[in-house]
Structures are given as structure tokens and as C-alpha cells.
Amino acid sequence: MDVMSPLFGRKAPAPSARSVTLIRKPGCHLCDDAQVVVEKVCGDLGVHWEQQDITQDSRLHDLYWEQIPVVLVDGEQHTFWRVNEERLRKALTD
Description:
alpha+beta, 35% helix, Glutaredoxin
């Protein structure tokens, strides 16, 4: 199901058609905090999410090692370091 975008009159994907990726590393307290927010928002909206570990992927490490945790929405960087629940929710529903 698509919803109309109020800004452009285009149909935006329904939240369930979106995806979120949390890029993190073990032992990172900011990553743990980010995961709590991602789990809550994605759970509320029925959005698929996954996590990827920069210590297991050299490309991700090279791209994001100074910014983790990083949240991608539909493959595009949404935020890093601190995840704001309202901002993530808005990005997934607009």
C-alpha cells in the first residue's frame, strides 16, 4: 500500500515496504542505544530492519568507522551517532 506524499503528490512507500540497516560494532554503547530506538520504531511500524557489524565487513568499516552507529533507510544514510526516535519515525512514514 502506498500513501500520498503531501509535498509532491507522489505516492510514498508504505512503512512496511521500507528497510532500515543499523551499522554497528560489538561493545559500542551508542550502538546499543541506537538498536533500542531502531527496534522500537521498526516494530511499531512493521518495518524490516537488520544490523551489520563493521568488524566483519571491511567496506563498511572504511565507510563508517568514525560515525558508528549509522542508520540507513532504504540504503541511504539517515543518521549517525545518536538516533532520534521521532526523526526516524518521520523518515519511515513520510
